[in-house]
Write a structure and sequence with these properties.
Layout lengths: L2 E6 L3 H12 L4 E7 L3 H10 L4 E3 L2 H5 L6 E4 L6 H10 L3 E4 L7 H14 L3 E3 L7 H12 L5 E9 L21 H4 L3 H17 L3 E8 L10 E8 L4 E7 L10 E5 L2 E6 L6 E9 L3 E9 L2 H16 L7 H20 L3 E2 L3
Parallel strand pairs: 1-2, 1-4, 2-3, 4-5, 5-6, 7-10
Antiparallel strand pairs: 7-11, 8-9, 8-15, 9-10, 11-12, 12-13, 13-14
Length: 342
């Protein structure tokens, strides 16, 4: 069955990644595009072979050709839009963060469960085959007892002491009420979710240092120290102001060896897997693939709808991400280590 997708937002990410990914998937097509501007929605739809264009979200939800609503709207709008989509019987794939508070995350999860529609979150790094392989190795015990896991996603422009200015259509990222947090919401949540995915364990404690200040509350650089179930320690570094960082990597160190996927924490399918233990020496190269991670995400979501199962990143994963993000904000503000409720 081919699912009709509605894309909510005509920004850079839907334009460059998700619309092409939907069109590259056999079981998906763009049934509708929603923007505050009807002309912008029509232009986007025409560019990506979309059927209908709307400037009215409620009208889109009444479109019988729409089966899935993909939310790439500003973060503070996700909750109401997701709840309304579920009430209309539409499946929901929501960009991260799923919502800005735990209560709102629970509202979305409960609404989708009550309507028996699938709920997913756009953690595209789960779809990288190198990350999947690393998760399998951890689960099989091939690396032994895990002591340390690390992930980083670091950017910047050389010669600029401050983060680069965002284009006009991304200025909402600088508004705390709309974004919720700074670089944590953009890239940090991906690193945290990736460590959760690879280790198959939940975060129990969070400590954070950021560059946020009273007159600049949205952070552009974070260092996170995490403790996972079972005692493994995790570190995350994410930044918009560090141009010379060597590589965006995820690494796991255990009592029997290590597994590293270098250059993979990105929006493009790329990187190199290196696994070294006494029993194995495995090397793999991936990419390049401009939309491959997102095409795999769309394929997995379509499969989840067809089979009535959770997608690879579920509403629960969105909730866990929000818990860590809020703990990060509290830890950075108070200087304390924050324990997470199970």
């Amino acid at each position: 069955m081919t699912l009709g997708w509605a894309i909510v937002s005509t920004g850079r990410h839907p334009d460059q990644k998700m619309a092409p990914a939907i069109n590259a998937t056999d079981d998906a097509r763009i049934a509708a595009v929603v923007s505050r501007s009807k002309a912008r929605a029509r232009e986007f739809a025409d560019k990506h072979s979309g059927a209908n264009a709307y400037d009215d979200y409620a009208a889109m939800l009444r479109d019988p050709a729409v089966d899935v609503v993909y939310l790439a709207s500003p973060n503070h709008l996700h909750t109401q839009q997701a709840v309304e989509a579920a009430a209309a019987g539409k499946h929901v794939l929501c960009e991260k963060p799923m919502a800005l508070t735990i209560d709102d995350c629970n509202r979305i999860v409960d609404a989708c469960a009550a309507a028996n529609v699938r709920l997913g979150v756009g953690f595209h790094l789960r779809n990288h085959p190198g990350h999947e392989r690393l998760r399998d190795l951890v689960a099989a015990g091939s690396l032994g007892t895990i002591s340390l896991a690390q992930a980083n996603w670091v950017r910047g422009v050389r010669g600029q002491s401050a983060p680069p200015l965002r284009p006009p259509d991304q200025q909402w990222w600088e508004d705390p009420a709309m974004a919720g947090a700074g670089v944590m919401m953009a890239t940090g949540v991906h690193c945290v979710d990736l460590l959760r995915f690879v280790l198959g364990r939940e975060v129990t404690e969070v400590s954070a240092l950021t560059d946020a200040a009273a007159d600049a509350p949205l952070e552009h650089l974070i260092t996170l120290l995490l403790r996972f179930e079972g005692g493994a320690v995790g570190t995350v570094i994410t930044s918009r102001r560090t141009p010379d960082w060597p590589s965006q990597d995820v690494a796991v160190y255990g009592s029997l060896g290590k597994g590293i996927v270098s250059g993979s924490v990105e929006t493009v399918l790329q990187g190199n897997l290196s696994v070294t233990t006494d029993a194995m020496d495995e090397q793999q190269h991936f990419g390049p693939g401009a939309i491959a991670l997102y095409a795999r995400q769309v394929e997995a979501f379509c499969r989840a709808v067809a089979e009535g199962i959770d997608p690879p990143a579920s509403g629960l994963d969105g909730l866990r991400s929000a818990q860590v993000t809020l703990a990060m904000v509290e830890s950075a503000r108070t200087g304390r280590r924050i324990e997470l409720a199970s």
